[in-house]
Amino acid sequence: MRHGQTHANVSGELDTAYPGLHLTDLGQTQARAAARAVSAESLDAIYVSRLVRTHQTAAPTATGRGLTPVELDGLHEVQAGEYEMRNDHDAIHGYISSVASWLQGDLDVRMPGGETGRDFLERYDAAVRTIVSAGHDSAMIVSHGAALRTWISSRMLPDISAPAVTAPLHNTAMIVLDGDFDAGWRLVSWQGEPVGGAFLDDLAAPDPTGDLDAD
Fold it and tell me: Which residues contact 102 (CB under 8 A, 6 or more apart)?
């Protein structure tokens, strides 16, 4: 699950450093609605990144199930480097262009002042391997837009029915995968709108990583 709306999503700023900005009131509503939307699903554990927005998004689901979210450092957002907390055209274009290169398979491209695609996949893989090794039947990861796109596009088995990796992935959107590193990861579903309902989407927010096809 992608985290709920933050104040940086509204302002279009690239907020990737620790601890990050908090959820907006709408983001909190999205998180509560997401908890209701997945209430019938079997869920053994919840994992979050080091950024506060993932903790806040996971909280309603965790509380309702009596679970304590586990923080894994590798699940954090693609680091913006020199573009951190900027929302100007050059910064947004530079960030999205770097991520787009990774999505196209060029993992040696480096985010200016940040990591390469290979660096990113190494630390995200390590976090997911920790989750897999815990032996859960099912677990939820609350993470970030660019991070989820990059990892899923790089690790998911080919599926001609799957949406393009540039398809919308808005706040509290959810992607469900089945599998492991040996068998591979199969796409079960991709819900690009808020899992609690599309009416919770904020179409007025610029949110640069929510829709990579947007101008």
Answer: 109, 117, 120, 150, 154
d(CA 51, CA 17): 8
Candidates 76, 77, 144, 170; catalytic one: 77
Radius of gyration of the chain (CA): 16
pLDDT in tens, 36-62: 999 999 999 999 999 999 999 999 999
3 is catalytic: yes
Report how many helices (DSSP H) and strands (DSSP E) the chain contains, helices first. 6, 5
Omega of the bond leading into 208 within 30 degrees of 0 (cis):
no
Sheet holding 70-71, edge to edge: 70-71, 45-48, 139-142
The residue annotated as part of the active site, out of 3, 55, 76, 170, is: 3
Q: Examine the residue annotation and report whether 84 is marked as an active-site residue of this protein.
A: no
